[in-house]
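Students often ask why we bother encoding 3D structure as a string. The short answer is that it lets us treat folding as translation between two languages. Here is a chain of 284 residues written in the first language.
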Amino acid sequence: MTRKLALLALATSLPFTPAYARDNSAYVGVEGGALLARNQHVDLSTATTTTPNGLNVRYKKPGLDLDLKGGYDFGLFRAEIEGGYKYASVDELSGAAVGNTTRDGRGHTSVVSGMGNLLVDLGPDDGANFSLGAGAGWARAKLSHIAPSGSTASGADERDSGFAWQLLAEARYPVTAQMDVGLKYRYFQTRRLRFDNLFNTATAPTTGRDRFRSHSLLLSFVYNFNVAEPAPPPPPPPPPPPPPPPPVETQTCFDGSVLPVTAVCPSPPPPPPPPPPPPTQERG
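And here it is in the second language, the structure alphabet:
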């Protein structure tokens, strides 16, 4: 449900307006926001015994997730590297490690990671841009002073590092020629980590094993280098030529000349006079 709500927020949070194209440009960014750490179910083992889910850790919500990143936009794909820091405070502890009861806890878990990400850009280049992707890298998780509240013991205090991976979904919206703001969802998970001497005593050092998993919703600010301004709109097409004048109505005059109907044909010449009558002869 958390993932569905985060993706819905990405889809509805940003408007669409024309902007600058980001293709073929490098970028750097900073991100920060809320971390929802999944409950941990740590398997505990000593030299002689193993207790599945011997320590269950419930974290307060929200925690903190911060990262710095830099990458290059190839057009359809973006490749980036990312350095991240995650912090979650303990809320409750339960399991065999605390007498099979549920108790308020203290302490925290922090994770430092270095990841490489590959994302696919969805949507047009001239406005809000959506991306889906995944990343892989290395993470170090540290459990710090995890113990029941009020306990005088130092608590679980150990670290381990190993492979980590993540899934990403984000939306970015340009606010200036080179600056974007964005909203990003992240699911993060480490491999199964081993915390040696988690509860170290003289007779029975205890080892814990579990993964760190979290959901994050982050606000991002991204600066783009070498951004090409949008091409100016093409000039308007030339006006169409005026229509040809309508054809002139004509008339044919008696002499064969052709004149506009508005002109007056020349008058025909008067008819020739009749011939004179023949002379008459006198009779004698």
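Translate back mentally: Confidence is low (pLDDT under 50) at residues 7-20. Keep this in mind for the problem set.
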